[in-house]
Amino acid sequence: MAVHEDGRASEKRSGEDGDDMPIFNAENLQSNMKSIYYSRTFLSIIGGVVAGIWGFTGLMGFVLYFLIMATASLGFAAKAKFSTHKYFDCWNRIVIDGFLGGLMSFVLFWTTVLGYH
After folding, report:
1. Helices within the chain (DSSP H only)
2. Membrane-spanning residues where (predicted)?
3. What is the pLDDT of residues 85-108, one digit of tens each?
């Protein structure tokens, strides 16, 4: 993951009222978000194939999807050494963003593989 700090950005910008605001490099933040998005999409596809091969139907397949996404969120946080403010501007970026984005890919591959099983 790309760190938002570089030579200039490692300093904190002081506001007029004395509050410190971290400086983020927009390119690095965007790169980190792309990595999470692509990882979640890949895990959705793999999870859909696994759910289809294992023959999960109905609610069990969706439970598997949410377990995969929760595990992915935990893995992303662990990869960031649980200091997400160093790589992202808020926790929502790593936990919630893209959580439902891969659902359509999951269902597509789940039902396709389940149909051949």
Report:
1. 26-53, 59-79, 92-95, 103-116
2. 37-56, 94-116
3. 787 888 877 777 777 888 999 999
Q: What is the pLDDT of residues 10-20, one digit of tens each?
A: 444 444 455 66
Residues 6+ apart with CB under 8 A from 36: 76, 93, 94, 97, 98
Nearest-angstrom CA–CA distance, 87 and 89: 7
Do 71 and 104 touch, CB atoms closer than 8 A? no
Residue 73, amino acid: S
Q: CA-to-CA distance for 98 and 16, rounded, in angstroms?
A: 36
Which has the closest alpha carbon to 68: 110, 34, 96, 40?
A: 40
Distance CA 58, CA 111 (A): 11
Cβ atoms 45, 105 nearer than 8 A: yes
